[in-house]
Design brief:
Elements (H helix, E strand, L loop, with lengths): L1 E4 L1 H25 L12 H16 L7 E3 L2 E3 L5 E2 L8 E4 L10 H12 L2
Parallel strand pairs: 1-5
Antiparallel strand pairs: 2-3, 4-5
Amino acid sequence: MKLTKDDPLYSTLSDQFVVRYVARIARILDREPLIKFNLNEVGQAERDLLFTVCFEGVVNFEDPRSCQDGGRAYRLRPVFQGEPDVETETMIFGDTAMHGLIDDPILELGIQRAKGH
């Protein structure tokens, strides 16, 4: 397996992942009858809720406190796997902090994606 550090590509892929993540969470909130969230009427309160849930969820992928095993610490580092070919698989990683991508433009793209636009 080839592991490649490619910050620009990782950033592009991270943007796509975060938009899909926001859309998925928005659809979950929209379906949940105990939560006041309507995809057809997303006001500031709904945006704030969506931001909080998405930010807190994504930040767990980058938690610097790490996981422990056998006295060693391991930090989760999201990677993207390229389409496997017969010779090698490529894993892309970079320094983009995905939780920092949760902002108003990404929230809007995620909401639109959740609506099917």
